[in-house]
Amino acid sequence: MINIILPVDFSDATDRLVDGAMKFARELNGRICLIHVAPADIGFAIGDMGFQYFPEVEQNEIKQELLQLNTLEQRIIAQGIDCEHLLKQGVSGDTILEYAKDKAAAYIVMGSHGRSNMYDVFVGSLTKELTRRSHIPVLVIPIH
User: Where in the numbering of this chain does the UspA domain appear (predicted)?
Assistant: First the structure.
């Protein structure tokens, strides 16, 4: 079976991205491997006493993200498409590429908001990074 990596960030565009990935997976008879990369510093905050770590904040955030991943996975499976998911903390680009390698994936599916180059300069673009660094094809779905 062909593994298709689908990174999700739970933004407003996630549903459209999942729809596009499901269409692609149906055409290839592929499996969708969902991944959400949570920041490594999720439970840290800065205040009057400097950096502080709040493990309960991190645990609650991770728990919510896992629930969202489970919901997406069940939605995809309900459409007759094989699916699995992973939530991992780390650097998004590195973590996604490592997951693609571990799964021997044939494709990575990403979304593009079609923002200007100025946006990329200030915010960065994971899709742009992965299209440059990936050794496997990256399918970019326009999200407008």
Answer: 3-142
